[in-house]
Amino acid sequence: MKKVALVASIIVIISLLVISLFTYSNLNKEFLISEEIIFEVKKGENNKNIFFRLEKQGLINFHKLHYSAFRVINLINPKLFFKSGEYRIPPNSDYKTTLSKMFSGKVYQRRITIAEGLTVTEAISIINQNPYLTGNISKTPKEGSILPETYFFKKGDSKESQLKIMLEKMQLTLDAAWNSRNKDLPLKNKYELLILASIVEKETGVNSERDRIAGVFINRINKRMRIQSDPTVIYAITKGKYKLERPLSKRDLRNTSPYSTYTNPGLPPTPIANPGKLALFATATPLKTKDLYFVSDGNGKHRFSKSLAEHNHNVSLLRKHERKLRQKHQN
Fold first, then answer.
1. In terms of C-beta density within 10 A (0-12 exposed, 13-18 middle, 19 or more buried), how is residue 40 classed?
2. Which of 289, 273, 147 is nearest to 211 (CA)?
3. Cα 233 from chain centre
4. What's the pTM value of the predicted model, to 2 decimals?
5. Domain boundaries, the chain
6. Residue-wise pLDDT tens digits, 138-171
């Protein structure tokens, strides 16, 4: 019996040595993959199957030996276990680093981007269409309440929790912009700042122009002139639920909706989109000029003017540019 026990002990020792040498030789070995892999450890998945799938993905060989080595290590350190979630494994990753990620739960962060100037309807649609978020959004928030930005999340997070983060970030950013505002700003509260910033956001995508366009609107408000912003008329027609795939007509500009800043003085009743951080701060600290008008230059920027005569000249330059483009297209 003693001889049998001795032989058994020797076999166990040799097995442990083989496993230890095998583990040590593989720990710093780089994976031979040319593209990154997103590997998911499923909730409740057994360890043996995890190693089997690692081999199936071409990351390791002899998954049973890896599993045996893990069992030995797990006996020494029972707190060591795979945490569920997705893990990014880029080319040239090594085995040790990858296992460390999976044991510590450093899961892969997916991203979702809400672009500046989208309406709440458009933003909610992006959230709802993301296949890695779960659940449903029970209530659509108010227009302008989502901060446009890139957000990070892990697979399985809920749509409601992601939306909550977006709403909270808008409140924090709006508070910061309001607190940094010019003290002579003719806006009663931060909600009016949010409304005007949404108009500024829809008027231009050029960062360097935002504070100047905000300044034009502030000048018009101070002079009790109507804001006369085309995007407010578009919102009056669409309510932010679809894209208006046609130019505005003279009839559109006579629209009596409360959102139309052509027929109504002051600001519309709510924002017309979700303004980004740059638009919020540009509106809070607008450029001080005497500009009262602006019009597109036909190349993505605007021409600014202090008088109606100068503005009309700039409009004629735009029409001339448009005619040239049409002729070029026809030829």
1. middle
2. 289
3. 27
4. 0.85
5. 2-104, 110-169, 181-330
6. 999 999 999 999 999 999 999 999 999 999 999 9
